[in-house]
Every structure is written in structure tokens, then in C-alpha cells.
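Q: Sequence in, structure out?
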Amino acid sequence: MVRTDRVSRIIAAPQAAVYDALLRREALEAWLPPDGMRGRVERWDPRPGGGFRMVLTYLDPTGGPGKSSAGEDVVDVGFGELVRPRRVTQQAVFESDDPAYAGTMTMTWDLVPVRTGTEVTVTATDVPPGIDQAVHEAGIASSLANLASYVEARP
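A: Exactly. Output:
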């Protein structure tokens, strides 16, 4: 069964500023890792058909096993649709020997201007069954909170 996880947040920043933060390497490293993790981008090609590889390291690896190793999640992300300033679509594949994390998850970032800024909705489809839905949605919400802090702090 195909699973879809979805999280939204209104960010007090213009749509273009949010879009730019989705496509800048240093921005992604700053805001994408959810609470309890840090991230490092190893490869960067921000265009349709390009992508990036991110290593997410658990600050406390005893809290739960990583997907790629005890303390890390490694994900290869391909950029699909890039519609400035409205949408970014990504295909994410986790590096893992565990078949519960196999497959390609599609992440769609929809950015809609609203009176107070931009409503960002992240929709994840084909989520691997090894990823707990509540934990995944909490992680996306944490990343969105980080994104809000990142773009709202910039002029």
C-alpha cells in the first residue's frame, strides 16, 4: 500500500525566499536536518535531473538506529520538477541494507503565498515502510520549523 505523509506550516517570508532556501546548499545544510541531527551535503547539482547526497548524523546515536549505519542516515536526492517559486519535487533514496527502507520516496514542496507569508506543504509519497509515520511527520515538522527560523531571520 502506498503511504503519503503530509505536513504544512506558514512561514513569515516571501515565497521566493523560501524557494531559494530549498535550492541553496548552505541553506539546506542549516535547516533540513530535524532536531537531534546535523547534515552535510556531499554532492550538489541544483537543476532538474540533478540532485544532492546528504549525510544526516544523529547527535545521540543511542536514541535509535540510523537507516544507513548506527548513527547516520544517508540519502541520495534527485531533483525532479523545479517550478520557481511554487514547487520543488525530489526523489529520495536511502542508502540502507534493510529492505524496509528500500524504494524511492517522492517529496513535493508546495509553496503558496498567503497574507502572512508562505504556506509550505511537504507531501511525501511512497514512504518506505520502515519509516514510522508519526516520527516522519514530526521530522518534517521539525525541518519546517528550522526552515522558518532560517528564512524569517534574513532581510
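Residues 3 and 84 are 27 Å apart (CA to CA).
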